[in-house]
Amino acid sequence: MFLSQFILEIIFSPSKKKTIFFSKTIEFYKQFHSIPKRITLSKRLAQCLHPALPSGVHLKALEVYETIFQIIDKRHLQRDIILYSYGLFSLLSDAALPVKPILLTLYETYFLPLGEALNPILTGFLVGLFSALEEGADYYNRVIILLDNLANRIDEFYFYTCIWSAINFVSTVRYSAITFILNHFDKRKNMKVQIYLIGLSRDTMVSAVCICLHDSRDSLAQRSILDFLLICLPIHRKLLTKANMIKIINGTFHILLQRDMALNRRIYTWYFDTNQLNNDITSEQHLINDLVDSSSYFVTHTREILIESLKSSLQAISMKPLLTIVKSDNNDKQPMTNIIDSLPSSTWTLTKLIRVLIILIDKPDVGPNIIESIFMNYSLLVYEQVYHPAKNLTSINIQHENSYSETLKTFNMLLDTLEPYFVWELLTKIFDIVLNQQEDNNCITAGSTIEQICGVIDMLLDIFSLENPLDTQSEHLSRMLYRLIEVMNNNIEKLTSNQITLCVELLLKIFKNIIPTNKNHSLSIFRCSFNQQYETFDNYLTDYHIEDNNEHINFIDNEYSADIYNKLLRTDNISQLENQNLIVEQENLNDIEQLLRQMTRKVEKQLDKINNPLLDKKQSRLSTKTMLESMNNIEKSIELYKKFFHHFIITYLIDQKQVLMNDKFQSIYSIIQNKTNDNLLTIFNRYRQLNEFQLKLNDNVDHYITAFENCCKILTEFCCFPIQSSLNDQSFPSKGIND
Q1: How many CB atoms are located within 10 Å of the residue 139 CB?
Q2: Neighbouring C-alpha atoms within 13 Å toward the C-beta of 282
Q3: Which residue from 380, 320, 378, 334 is spatially nearest to 352, judged by alpha carbons?
Q4: What local confidence, expressed as pLDDT, does residue 661 receive?
């Protein structure tokens, strides 16, 4: 009756007086070793331990708990431990100073002796202890001793498994729990000897590690978990599976975006950890070796798993529509949920992953080792999710437009950190590998097709054309143009009609990017008459060598100008220049044109000096040399394209079962050798009637009409380009330089 009355009254108003009354009632019936209505009673006692109640109520409630534990024996306590722990475990972190020692005494006296019987409630017990564990606080050492005694009475693997579970689910225990683990790691021993620190479930530990890495609100937890990775889980030890390592490394990407120097230093130390490797070699193999180079360590142990982590993140994003990705950008301030996957799809966007790559390639030991293997994956995703949709949509909403713009701007930042030659050479290499179906050991192609490669190059041409100067485009794109035509010509049988169409359209776009129509003055060297080619090249190469001596420049310029001027004065009168019958007319007109061209070059140089006051002579020489190389590459590309065009026609358009036209003409030529001129016309008419000169087309020629039209377009563009003498006389440039 007294118990029922206490339960009913305490539901409405728990008080110190009623708690004291109930404690005396239990003591009066202590001869009974069982408590009636223990479930309801445990709920009401837990209610008395609410943090909002005064400490006096807490103290009296603890007295009731102690009285109950004294009455019931150990066997009954093991049975009912879950009921009584409901309110006791959550009290320690919020308890007042007078309450804490009594509560700890209760833990030490009644809970600790239970040993492995605490297993069902161990995670909650650890949460309560770690929540109150603060360095420098009162009773800190007493809590540590209690945790050590608890670890000694319970299986080590299970104990640390419960710690990782607590870290995974409760944010307030993360820093103190990880610190406890680090303090119990013996650096003199190998991690394989102390593998119990990982616990029974590696997945639980990995999930807890990733949650800590993503918890940007608790930098101490992030710092301590990175210390755990650095000390206990070096990459070269391979204690975890590849999938788990990818999850952890993806978690480190999240920290890199925070731009915290202290945290980033720990991440890079983990990536390049050489001291740990040397310690392992010394202790296990007893070898004396030099310090392992950080770059070698990265290439050997970290590079592959880092690339796989980036690819897995990109693959996760590629599974989602861009609109979903954009919406997640606005939810960065939402609290972190408890998940098993370390890379929640809602926390990553393509823009963020591009920023991660920008941060990584800023490290000299990281960028050169990973960029080739990952660049195509990024480019493909940007093309498929941003560039291609934006290009094909006639109308686009503001949300998509902002997301596309932000992603393209970030991707452009990535391109700015790379050398232009690297981008174009890598894409050309990928094109060659895919078309030749070569073995891709480094996975640089990202499983792309010819169509996708052409789309990526087309996108980059649009992006680069806005940023790169003309010299850069001419130098690298002219080389790329030649290589693409060479690969297409060597593998034309492997190309379909649609692929030929795309490739030829791409060649035309590259050619127009090399020679834009709005910069004609820069390409004036291409528009000389054939008679003045040697003189024009000679002037350019002379300028290339005499710029180091200003006096010598002035002397040559003055001498050259005076010479032309004297030639003009040697004519009897000006009217003679208009006489079309004079022999010297062409020579004088050529001299005038050369003089005007020289004056134009001088003006252009002066304008460059005004617009670029820091432009030195070396850069000017390189610009001239670059122009000559670009010209040479373009001319070689044109010649090679003619072979490709012929190859394309005889492969896809003309029926190759016929006798070759060359053989036909040879046969006709042998016949007419013994004929007179009177009989030639009769012979040719007879061959015409027999349709000997008529070409038979392939049956599927209709499939290649569009490709043929595009091939003709670019052939027309090439034919309109003036061919220089650099191909006909390869010794000329070297001759001019030597002079």
Answers
A1: 18
A2: 13
A3: 378
A4: 60
On whether the CB atoms of residues 312 and 246 are closer than 8 A, the answer is: yes
Cβ within 8 Å of residue 309, ≥6 positions away:
245, 246, 249, 250, 253
Long-range CB pairs of 16-24 (<8 Å, 24+ gap) are: 16/54, 16/56, 16/57, 16/60, 19/48, 19/57, 19/60, 19/61, 19/63, 19/64, 20/60, 22/64, 23/60, 23/63, 23/64, 23/67
Query: Residue 240's pLDDT is what?
Result: 92
Supply the DSSP symbol for 122.
H
Q: Which two tokens stand for residue 30?
A: 């202590």
Each residue's pLDDT tens digit, 387-406: 888 777 655 555 566 677 88
Q: What is the pLDDT of residue 71?
A: 82
Evaluate whether residue 124 is within a structural domain.
yes
Alpha-carbon span 42 to 23, nearest angstrom: 14
Alpha carbon of residue 94 to chain centroid: 46
Lookup: tokens for 141: 């050492």
Q: Alpha carbon 201 to chain centroid distance?
A: 31
Residue 123 domain flag: yes
Q: What percent of the chain has pLDDT over 70?
A: 63
- Output the pLDDT for position 595: 62
Name residue, tokens 């239990």: 26
Query: What does the block give as tokens for 73?
Result: 């024996």
pLDDT of residue 416: 87
Longest alpha-carbon distance in the chain = 146
| C-alpha span between 386 and 317 (Å, rounded) | 12
Pick the last residue of a domain from 139, 154, 169.
Answer: 154
Q: How many CB atoms lie within 10 A of CB 363?
A: 16
Q: Which two tokens stand for residue 704?
A: 């290649």
- 37's CB contacts (< 8 A; 6+ apart) are 3, 4, 7
* CA–CA dist 513, 524 (Å, integer): 16
Question: Alpha-carbon distance 317 to 263, whole Å?
Answer: 26
Asked whether residue 417 is assigned to any structural domain, the reply reads no
Encode 701-719: b = buried (16+ Cβ within 10 Å), e = exposed.
eeebeebbebbeebbebbe
Query: For 474-484, what is each residue's pLDDT tens digit?
Result: 778 889 999 99
Find where tokens 């708690």 sit.
19
Sign of CA dihedral 411, 414, 418, 423: negative
How far is Cα 14 from Cα 293, in angstroms, rounded to an integer? Answer: 67
pLDDT in tens, 690-731: 665 566 777 788 888 898 999 999 988 888 876 654 444 443
Q: Residue 438, SS3?
A: coil
Q: Average per-residue pLDDT in the chain?
A: 75
- Is the distance from CB of 88 to CB of 103 less than 8 angstroms? yes
Cα-Cα end-to-end distance for the chain: 120
Return the DSSP state at 654. B
Domain termination site, one of 106, 136, 154: 154
Token output for 177: 């729990």
**Domain assignment present for 388:** no
For 57-74, the pLDDT digits (tens) are 889 888 888 888 888 878
Q: Is the distance from CB of 109 to CB of 156 less than 8 angstroms?
A: no
Span 232-253, mean pLDDT?
92
What region, left, alpha or beta, does residue 617 occupy, with left being phi > 0 and alpha being psi -120 to 50 degrees? alpha
Q: Report the range of poorest mean pLDDT among 88-97, 170-179, 451-460, 464-473.
A: 464-473
Provide the sign of the torsion angle of the four alpha carbons 63, 68, 71, 75, taken in this order: negative
Which residue range is the domain that position 600 belongs to?
Answer: 523-738
DSSP3 helix / strand / coil % (the chain, rounded to 5): 75, 0, 25
pLDDT band at 521 (very low <50, low <70, confident <90, very high): very low
The number of distinct structural domains making up the chain is 2
